Amino acid sequence: MTTQTATPVVARTRDELAEARAALTAGDVAVVMTMGALHHGHAQLIKQARARAEHVIVTIFLNPLQFGPREDLSRYPRTFDDDMEICTREGVDIVFAPTPDVVYPEGDPGVRISAGPLGAVLEGQARPGHFDGVLTVVGKLLHLTGASSAYFGQKDAQQLLLIRRMVRDLDFPVDVVSVPTVREEDGLAMSSRNTYLTASDREVALCLSQALKAGADAAAEGPSAIRRAARSVLVKEPLALIDYLVLVHPTTLEDVPEWYRGEALLAVAGRVGTTRLIDNMPVRVGPGGGALQVFSEHAGRHEAPVE
Ligand SMILES: Nc1ncnc2c1ncn2[C@@H]1O[C@H](COP(=O)(O)OP(=O)(O)OP(=O)(O)O)[C@@H](O)[C@H]1O
Ligand SMILES: [Mg+2]
């Protein structure tokens, strides 16, 4: 693939996007959807997209539909100039950065995509309506960008699952590709909201990834051993207010029973300081088990990290 260093075209309106999109004629178009405040996790999504598609569109949009009334959208970090630098470095063709009135010209949309029962558990229980808001904007951005593939991070495992389900259940002509979670050296999953963490919060937050690792290390012994090992790390950190720690089936999100062997999702969510954090690890449960990068159903669709 050729290295591209030109600044991406910035599209703010639907017309600007349509015009820039029409100029991408050389081959496949991939999309990476973000809320901005880009970090190495986003960069890895873009690299994976660039490795397989001729063109890449990055969307930067803070979607009001997926924020609850008590979640403060206005404090979300906005770092557009830095985001552009990353997009330029990664060879992005178009950055679509609309305001809410561009995406929702009639205001709050009456019609939304329903995430269904899988959208009501775990993150959906903590954030009612969140996944309907996510799927609605993802569906719209797929239409507006006309992308044939879309890249999402494993960090947001439930979101990824629901997007796969939407694409399948509603026949979107799009290939969904998952990218393994990119972590800081000490294990913390990269996330735009990590910037909210104070230095001491940051120390406390480490217990999430450490718990997942401890769980994965016990994977050979079965579900209760995994849960116990993970929980024993979390209980040592009372300043992390854990919302859930679960070991669930990767596609039904139901707790796996003790006899279960095979792939499962070990997921955790909690509050540290004022910040809600999530993290997860795909694991293989049973003899020879342990942590996985992504679920094997999708393993063929993704390659080693691109540097
Ligand atoms: N550490 C990471 N590794 C891999 N992918 C990631 C990582 N963090 C985010 N992503 C992916 O980047 C895409 C855009 O996510 P988003 O812009 O919400 O970033 P974020 O870091 O999750 O921000 P926030 O913490 O506010 O949700 C999603 O597909 C998400 O899964
Ligand atoms: Mg996110």
Automatic annotation (TrEMBL):
Pathway the protein contributes to: Cofactor biosynthesis; (R)-pantothenate biosynthesis; (R)-pantothenate from (R)-pantoate and beta-alanine: step 1/1
Keyword Cytoplasm among UniProt keywords: yes
Chief location bin: cytoplasm
Compartment annotation: Cytoplasm
Catalytically driven reaction(s): (R)-pantoate + beta-alanine + ATP = (R)-pantothenate + AMP + diphosphate + H(+)
CDD domains listed in its UniProt record: PanC
Subunit-level organization: Homodimer.
Function: Catalyzes the condensation of pantoate with beta-alanine in an ATP-dependent reaction via a pantoyl-adenylate intermediate.
Miscellaneous remark of the record: The reaction proceeds by a bi uni uni bi ping pong mechanism.
Family: Belongs to the pantothenate synthetase family.
Protein's UniProt name: Pantothenate synthetase
Species of origin: Oryzihumus leptocrescens
Gene name of the record: panC
